[in-house]
Amino acid sequence: MAIFLEIAWRNLVSARRRTLMIGAALALVTMFLVLLMSLSQGLYDTIVRSSTTLLSGHVNVGGFYKAKSTDSAPMITRRDEVLAIVEREVEGLKYVVDRQRGFATITSDTDSLQSVLAGIDIRQERGLATQLRLAPRRSYLKDGDDQVTGDPERLADSDTIMLFSGQAARLEVDVGERVTLSAQLIDGTVNTVDAKVVAIAEDVGFLSSWNTFVNQATVRKLYQLNEQTTGAVMIYLNDPGRADDVMKTLRPKLADAGFDLLDHAPQPFWAKFDVVAGEDWTGLRLDLTTWRDEIAPLRWTLSAVETVSGVLVLVLTVIIVVGIMNTMWISVRERTNEVGTLRAIGMGRREVLLMFLLEALMLGVVFASLGASVGAGIAVAIDSAAIQVPIEAMRAVLLSDVLHLVLDPAQVLMAVLGFTAITALAALWPAARAARMQPVTAIHHVG
Amino acid sequence: MQGSLALFRVTMIIAIRNLFTHTTTTLIVGSIILFGTALVVLGTALLDSVEAAMERSITSSFAGHIQVYSSEGRDELALFGSGFMASEDIGELREFAPVRDALLEIPNIEDVVPMGMQFAQVVGGNLVDEQVEDFRRELRDGDSTTTERRVARLRQIAADLIDDYRNRLAVADDSKRIERAIADLNRVRDDAFWADSQSMEERLLFISTNVAPLFQQGQVTFLRVLGTDTEQFKRRFDRLRVIRGSTIPEGTRGLMLSNRSYEKRIKNRVARWIDRLDEESATDRSRLESDAELASLRERLPRQYQRITFNQDPDQAAELHRDLRDYLDREADLETLISEFLTLTPANFDARREAFYELVAPRIDLYPIKIGDTITLRSFTQSGYLKSVNVKVWGVFLFDGLEGSELAGSQNLLDMVSFRELYGVMTDEMRAELSTIREEIGLGAVRAEDAEQTLFGGGDGALEQRQTEMFDELEVLDDALDAAQGPGELIDPGAAQKGLALNAAVILRDPSRIESTMAAIRKTSERTGLGLSVSDWQSAAGLVGQFVTIVRLVLYVAIAIIFLVALVIINNSMVMATMERVAEIGTMRAIGSPRRLVVLMIFLETLALGLIAGSVGAGLGAAVVVVLQSVGLPATSDVLVFLFSGPRLYPEVNSTNLLTGVFAVLAVSLISTWYPARIATRVQPVVAMRTE
Questions:
Q1: CA distance A85 to A82
Q2: For B512, which DSSP code?
Q3: DSSP per residue over A22-91, as a string?
Q4: DSSP state, A88?
Q5: Contacts of A413 (CB under 8 A, 6+ apart)
Q6: What tens digit of pLDDT does each residue of A264-308 get?
Q7: Would you say A18 and A327 are in contact if contact means Cβ atoms under 8 Å apart?
Q8: Which residue from A194, A300, A315 is facing B464, i.e. has the nearest CB?
Q9: A45 — phi, psi (to 5°)?
Q10: At A423, is the pLDDT very low, low, confident or very high (cuts 50, 70, 90)?
């Protein structure tokens, strides 16, 4: 075996120019593949991170409460009961929170904007503090400094709100100032509550321009609701991958406790208003979703990026396969004499095939690894440079203000192995041709 | 001269012969070139078509070629919305007329149309109020035949409301208010209320003051409204076609709904669902089962029967019940029959759809807003206060050729005077009116400028103030204003051109000179101190306009990557081919060919290959586009529908696409030949003799 490796190595080295050229092409393609994969992985990472911070738990027990059959208020009652069942029944529970859901106009002295409200109890929200960073004053005030004021813990006080820096910049407010929340109640009247800004967090992409965290009691007061109501109970798991299982096991437990449940539909809660308002029941029905359901409308960006990079990689692979075949072909032709001699002195067909395949494999491993390392290096460099995305619509698609690339070692390994395999496959046909030759014709072959 | 021509001929022949003798290399390089050109032609043609479709949708629906707005606003104009959920602050053109007059002096400008956009909600009517009003009229007319039915209806409404309010007790923090409401409702429901000594008028007064406010319309409809000079708009955006009702008569206030809003937002939901199922399975009804989204829509439909029965007139309900019994040939109550009727399968879909429009649609409120209705639009002003305005709905319109476009159908047209009220501009007349009303309802004297603040605002110290009561006063005020300027009332025909506009569409005589005209507008604005911001249609479209730019960017990056790799591969193949021909080249050199001839030969070889393969590739790309043009490229997702400006894209290929493709490929093949050509020049004549 070692002798074959040695022959293959010698062949690669002796045809240095050819090896370098095809190797460069292979490395280039592997590099692009790694870059594209880390881009879509980065996008996935951004979506997951901002959605499970802002919009959803890994599993949500939400629902609708209808006073009359044409209503569709996104809230549940019997909060303590639901919380108790979740805490008792969910395995691998990291923590559980409940958040009010609302939608309000936030008005400052100078401007107003609309935002989704999440009414939170900050003492429950163990994950929030690790996911959000407070923004320095310069990011939202024209002549602000690097100072970071404010404290999310103060959301425990009543009538408090935490804004994102983009919102604070628009409203021209600083920590300690007041804004007015006004929301339309179910009966069409408008109710307002003043809230003090206690913290301003750094933007976490596009979603943070229309999400805000407010003290839970404040949202209840805004909507004139009692303490047993909440928007949704959000479950965070040690292993987010188990979300579907947890949802499936939780459904019967809630049903046993006397809750009515809606059929599972893979949509976010706000896409269900219309359907719910058309159904003829009243009272409470729970609706269980996973974080994937809640971000369903955002997934097209991910599938768009994956489609584009998929097509691109496919095209590149076809081109590279053609190139490798051509190279191997020439290599076989050039060495026809040599093959004939080897066969004449007793080398079997399988060994000839092996020799050429080993050559291709060696070429593949070396240059795909090289390309992957360069690609990985570039990905890490781009990510740590935190390049600002220049086009606004691009930021909307990427859900982030900066270009975020995430390197997944398993994917890089897959890329290297994949391209090595592709190189070997591309070499298979020329190698088989070489192996099939009769020693005598091979020796007599000229050129 | 003649000699060099002959030499060129010979070289050319050798080059072409070489292509044929080295078939593998030729095929490989040729197919890469072919593929690359086809991709460039197809990609750029598709993108140009998407851009053209979007340009048509945007410019000929309401943006015009250029938009101007005040430079004082904090945001850039985004006709279709930006990322924030806030109304953009694009400033105000406080007086539109001077802006128009100044711009019309620029020769290429045909016209300037004043505009303003606002997001409004349609406030539904109140069933209780309507019933009471009809009842009162009948009583006045001395018609007592209906009394029994009216009383029964009012008692039924009260009974239904009691259930609502009982449910609400479970979630409310202040149960006293709700208990009070339930007590009032109980009173109306009970026999005693109708049997006591009160007059009917006294009873109705109790109902309209205590019960009517408890009734709430279920869901609200949101509309984007575009205030403009409707006459001028019709003239300048001549694709506008009225398909129901009429246009807003000159000098009249009113609203025209876009067909898209009317069909996709206002129409009865069950009808809308059926329409959607029909449209999306038009080519293949089995998609009703195979497509996950359509299937789930179809499965949920039977449970939506109350969208049919809700608020249905009892006579109509009886007729529908009878017809459905006949149609389905079975006995059951109406709701069960409707559920069964709405249980659709690919097999029964066409028949059921037809039957729906024949039997069901005429007996329900198919369009809750009808032509001729007066509706109330409500909107938040920039400072966060609610404003409302009553307008008559005159008709439904669409833009010819842009029927499928989401963008072109996104705005509804409102007369400029009503828009200004909705936006919250105070005219001098209204200020005077306000101060009179204010004195009447005893709110005390305040400066006119502070009227809005005083009437609507919570004030600085008004922590957690509930504004429910305040809004009763607002309504009084609104009613008074309506009386002063009713919804259908005539307005001064020139009013739209006088006073405030937020932005204006500039229509050009020659749209291709958009850049120079924008420069001219900027100059005029500087000279006259009008302070205008100028945007072409694409940047005025906001995020939407940038979409095409992104797709273009992605395509170019992809093509660049593919070409880079192709370059390396072609280079590879050509180097191999050259190495193989070292002997041949040596011989050529030995018999006296100069170096440049060898280089020329190799370049000609690639050039010929590039031209042939490139042309075939371009032809192939163009052929695909032509095929797509005749069948239409279906938009399979919402994003694509939006990008294609309709359900299908009919792309066109132009000479620029073809030339770009061929030139790009030629450039790539020539660059990739540089290195092999250099190798060839280094070949010494002597090598020809060395090889066997």
A1: 5
A2: G
A3: HHHHHHHHHHHHHHHHHHHHHHHHHHHHHHHHHT--SEEEEEEEESSTT--B--BS-HHHHHHHHHHH-T
A4: H
A5: none
A6: 888 888 888 888 888 888 899 999 999 988 888 777 777 887 888
A7: yes
A8: A194
A9: -60, -45
A10: confident
pLDDT in tens, B133-148: 888 888 888 877 778 8
Q: What is the pLDDT of residues A271-281, one digit of tens each?
A: 888 888 888 88
- Assigned token pair, A314: 């496919």
Q: What is the 3-state secondary structure (H, E, C) of B17-70?
A: HHHHHCHHHHHHHHHHHHHHHHHHHHHHHHHHHHHHHHHHHHHHHHHCCEEEEE
Give A155's pLDDT tier (boundaries 50, 70, 90).
Answer: very high
Nearest chain B Cα distance for residue A409, angstroms: 23
Q: Which chain B residue's Cα is nearest to A115?
A: B85
Write down the pTM of the prediction.
Answer: 0.77
For the record, the structure tokens of A444 come out as 């007599």
CA–CA distance, A189 with B99 (Å, rounded to integer): 40
Least confident of A208-217, A276-285, A320-329, B137-146: A320-329
- Structure token digits, residue B129: 């109020």
Q: Which residues contact B146 (CB under 8 A, 6 or more apart)?
A: B135, B138
Which of A29, A327, A329 is nearest residue B565 as measured by Cβ atoms? A29
In A108-177, DSSP assigns E strands to 112-120, 160-164
Segment B559-568, tens digit of pLDDT: 888 888 888 8
When pLDDT is cut at 50, 70 and 90, the band that residue B433 belongs to is low
**Would you give the distance in Å from CA A165 to the centre of its chain?**
23
A83-A88-A89-A93 Cα dihedral, nearest 10 degrees: 80
At B622, list the tokens. Answer: 């163009």
Check CB contact under 8 Å for B84 and A283: no
- Put simply, whether B85 touches A (Cβ < 8 Å) is yes
CA A211 – CA B85 distance, rounded (Å): 10
B230 class by beta-carbon count within 10 Å (0-12 exposed, 13-18 middle, 19+ buried): buried
| 3 state DSSP class of A154 | helix
B476 touches chain A (CB under 8 A): no
Residues A92-121, mean pLDDT to the nearest whole number: 89
CB B543 within 8 A of CB B83: yes
> Quick one: closest CA in B to A389, which residue?
B550
The end-to-end CA distance of chain A, in Å, is 29
* Rounded distance between C-alpha atoms, residue B266 and residue A6, angstroms: 77
Residues forming beta bridges with residue A159, ordered by sequence position = none
Residues of B in contact with A182 (CB under 8 A): 384
Instruction: Provide the pLDDT for residue B395.
Output: 94
Helix axes A299-334, A349-385, angle to 10 degrees: 140
Q: Do A159 and B464 touch (CB under 8 A)?
A: yes
Nearest to B108 by CA among B515, B504, B508, B516: B508
DSSP A113: E
Paired tokens of A106: 């936030």
